[in-house]
Amino acid sequence: MGLNAKQLAQCTVDFDKDGKQSGYFNLPLSVHDDAWGVIRVPLAVIKNGDGPTVILEGGNHGDEYEGPIALGELIRDLDPGLVSGRLIFIPAINLPAVNAARRTSPIDDLNMNRTFPGNFNGTTTQQISAFVNDALFPMGDAFLDLHSGGSSLDLMPSSVIEPVADPVQHAKNVAAVTAFDAPLVVVIDNRGDTRTATASAARAGLTVVGTEMAGGGTVSIDALDICRRGVRNVLAHLGVLPPEMATPPRAEPRLFELPGSDAYVISDDDGVFEPFHRNGTMVSRGQPAGRVHFLAHPDRRPAELVYAADGILYGRRQPGRVKPGNCCLVVASPYGGSLK
């Protein structure tokens, strides 16, 4: 009988021990210059008494920084005596991508957030996903997955609702996401893709909170502040941290959703994209959105792109260079469903 994901990964922490521990889970990696080596993925546990178990993930994409920074601060600074329950931190879960500052892993070129529930007999990225799905999710009651737009997108800071069919789980997700207290709350289904970490956690029955914290491959001062406060707010909401560690809500959140394929403005051409609007601008279906310039052919007129949905400009492509199929802009429309 072969090993499962939990047995394959060698952990240096005891998940059932009270106090604060920092260590790793090790996965085998056999490469040209190291036949029997391992990848040491950072892992930390803070446990105290009884209460929920919350799994906090950052670095699913290696070029998204606000989440890993906020989680590292909690690992270093949080007094275990303030915790009621257990916090499991995986702040740089896709370590090869984090070290390379890439969305995808340099080992197998996979996007970790499209590999869940993983495969412990697969590539390195699939094995990491399998460990999270098979070993960590069964321990958890809630899951925070902290993202930003990465190198290719600049997104408005927001908390994200993972759509689920069960009304009880949906209500828990909505309450936790609202407690995060981001300026926007956005329902995102990732074009219906079920291979994301949040979709996998939702299938496992966990309460799920996602985020998008700016992007552009940099650290946003404002988004990092939102992320720091938001994580503490959610942990206080879940009862793992005392209520006084949360900050009072600033305002009623604005609710949006990505309206399917109409949310995305896609380039048909190879060139340089010029956006017409800043993030946060209200836009309309059919309105000119930007144009693609052909710098090597100055006699050729730019190709104009238009919006396919009404709403707010939620995100813009960060690199100017585009090719056919690149997402240039993202529109979030006012949420038309029920959050009850």
Please give a structural write-up:
The chain has 340 residues and is an alpha+beta fold. 21% of the residues lie in helices and 30% in strands. It contains 7 helices and 19 strands. The chain has helices spanning 5-8, 66-77, 95-100, 124-136, 167-180, 197-203, 221-237; strands at 10-11, 19-31, 34-48, 53-57, 85-90, 142-145, 153-155, 158-161, 184-187, 207-212, 254-257, 264-266, 271-275, 282-283, 288-293, 303-306, 311-317, 321-322, 327-334. The strands form 2 sheets. The protein has a 15-stranded mixed sheet that branches.
Give short descriptive properties of this protein:
340 residues; alpha+beta; 15-stranded mixed β-sheet; 4-stranded antiparallel β-sheet; 7 helices; 30% strand
